[in-house]
Here is the input.
Amino acid sequence: MILLDRVTKTYNKDIGTVLDRVSLHVEPNEFVIIVGQSGAGKTTLMKLLTREERPTSGKIIIGGIDYDKLKDHEIPLLRRKIGVVFQDFKLLPNKTVFENVSFALEIVGMGHREIQHTIPRVLDIVNLSGKEKRMPMELSGGERQRVAIARAIARQPKILIADEPTGNLDPKHAWDVIKIIEKINQYGTTVLLTTHNQDIVNKLKRRVVTMEHGRIVSDRANAKYNA
Amino acid sequence: MKRKIITFRRIISAGAISFMRNASLAVAAVAVMVVTLTIVLFSIVTSATLNHTISQIADKINISIYLNDNVTNDQRTALIGNLRQLRQVKSVEYISKDQALAEYKAANANNKDLLQAINETGNPLPASIQVTPVDPSHISQIQSLLNHPLTQALEDPQAGTSYSGDRKAAIDKIAHATNVLKQIGIAGVILFTLVSMLIIFNTLQMAIFNRRDEITIMRLLGATTWYIRGPFVVESIIYGIVSALISVTIIDLLFVVASSTLQASSLGLLDIGYANNYFYNNFLILLTVQLLAGIVIGAVSSIIATRRYLKFKTK
Here is the structure.
């Protein structure tokens, strides 16, 4: 499902090499946690996967799409196949919960009726039924992140990338979010989760990939993490 | 296909909504475009009117050759034939002594003393040949034929040949004014088109800046270039359409004021009556030209602006 082969990302001289020959293989329906200190290269890795940035060298293939052969106008189509959840939610503050999700569906050209039908279902998955008309400002951090997850999964992506989704949340809300991501994984979506929250990693008991200074230093199934 | 139509509709409505929201910014863009389009429209109407005035005066210009009473029918027919062969001649008309007298009587029907005097003296008016040139400024061939001694021998010694010389001067004056106006019009259109485009650039830059978070999110969610860009282009096209409608209204009001309040039929060389008719008779064409001009200015400047301010390339 996801294949990275010796992916390297080098910026200018001041920043230097952020990713150094990273190779990773993720099977369909796998749940992979990527851990590491700030600056280990987790976020850069995510940005390469969503094609916000290009690797300096190395190969990336996701769901059969070879990034080397991807043309600029095909990037939107790639992004529609990947659901992304960000640490800072990236919701539109002047739109309701419902509108924030429908916004993502409108982008892919989904019809009005289908949108009306889809949104209650995804809001139910993230336990936000009844809050369709709330504005993001009226929601807690955990609820906002769940709106973002609803937005990401509404288009039924094969892959969900969650970059520090619990980074801004207190432990209780963090768990709500993680449980929903687990649920989505059970429905058949490949999940790539980055975090530096030990507690979450240790309770999840999943495959853990540890990064340090832009390199993968360990990759173990059912692993623990000691930061 | 269905998705494309849905998406197209969404782009249009997003542009319309954005136009309403940016009303304060839109005012500047629309105002300058109104000036531009009004100049375009004014130039079109003015130059059409002046061209009409020129052609009207030019039609009235002719050369009258007054013949003496001894000219025979053969001589006259030969001269008319020679004139007709000239390329500079548009038409030739013969007016006999009787016709001339009838016309003269008709023109002075109210002046009984004059009519009586003419009746007593017999017909003093010479027969004449009226020559209408194709172009009043090019009559060299006609002149050289008329200056030929054989022709001069047929002419009435007192009346001779009369050119409508004063009219030619008027035509030259109007033609000159038309050219100057056209040049000013073209310069104005170019200048204000550029200013309009710059203002639209600015407006869109602000609009893009105001919506930068939304645009970033749209991109991350896989919105295509045109899904992001489209609403800005639609917004600018709406500026163009609104401006076109306003400019047509302005010119319309101008005519209403000129014809009713001022009661003026002409303004210097400008025949307002004709301009008025021209405007209303060609209203649909002029409106279309205005709308097209507005749409093109809006579309082109927004395409350039979005290309500049929305960066689509990945690093």
User: Anything to note?
Assistant: The mean pLDDT of chain B is 82. Chain B touches chain A through 23 residues (CB under 8 Å). Strands of chain B lie at 63-66, 89-95, 128-133, 161-163, 266-267, 270-271.
